Amino acid sequence: MKGIIHTAKGDMTIEFYEKDAPLTVANFVKLAKSGYYDGLKFHRVIADFVIQGGCPDGTGAGGPGYSIPCELTGNNQYHDRGVLSMAHRGPNTGGSQFFICHSRNNTSHLDRKHTCFGKVINGLEVIDAIREGDVMTKVEITED
User: Fold this and answer.
1) Can you point out the beta strands (E) in the chain?
2) Residue 144 clears pLDDT 80, i.e. is over it
3) CA distance 62 to 14
4) What value does the mean pLDDT of the chain take?
5) C-alpha triplet 41, 45, 51: angle, nearest 5°
6) Collapsing DSSP states into helix, strand and coil, what is residue 120?
């Protein structure tokens, strides 16, 4: 299973870490398949750090109305370039917001504190092109 985040700047193809973060992947997939992410903004963009989206109100304060537990013990819990990780306001408070890392330069302190649940395997240049306010036109899940 893979995901594709479609934007006006291009598409980002995601390979999920299903073995390392099964609950987080299942949550993201469920939200994506329901159309939850379609039309949402990247509300937080910090150069050489992350692009963040998934807030329904575009402020960084919203979510789906529930929380999921962190999954921090898997093998792929390292915040490298292109890694998708759950945003949260404290342990076990993630929901719909996620971020994608620009590089490892300023993200290593997030290792095993935020759940890494996938990685962009095609379209890495799109991460660098995204600006605050850019929209996820559609988030698609493919079964290959």
Assistant:
1) 2-7, 10-16, 42-46, 50-53, 83-86, 98-101, 116-122, 136-142
2) no
3) 23
4) 97
5) 75
6) strand
pLDDT digits (tens, 9 = 90+) for 39-76: 999 999 999 999 999 999 999 999 999 999 999 999 99
Give the DSSP H or E segment for 129: helix 124-129
The average pLDDT across 19-31 equals 98
pLDDT of 81 strictly over 90:
yes
Question: Where do the structural domains in the chain lie, given as residue ranges?
Answer: 2-142
Please report where in the chains the tokens 């962009």 appear, as a residue: 120
Supply 74's token pair: 């898997």
Homologous superfamily of 2-142: Cyclophilin-like (2.40.100.10)
Beta bridge partners of 83: 119
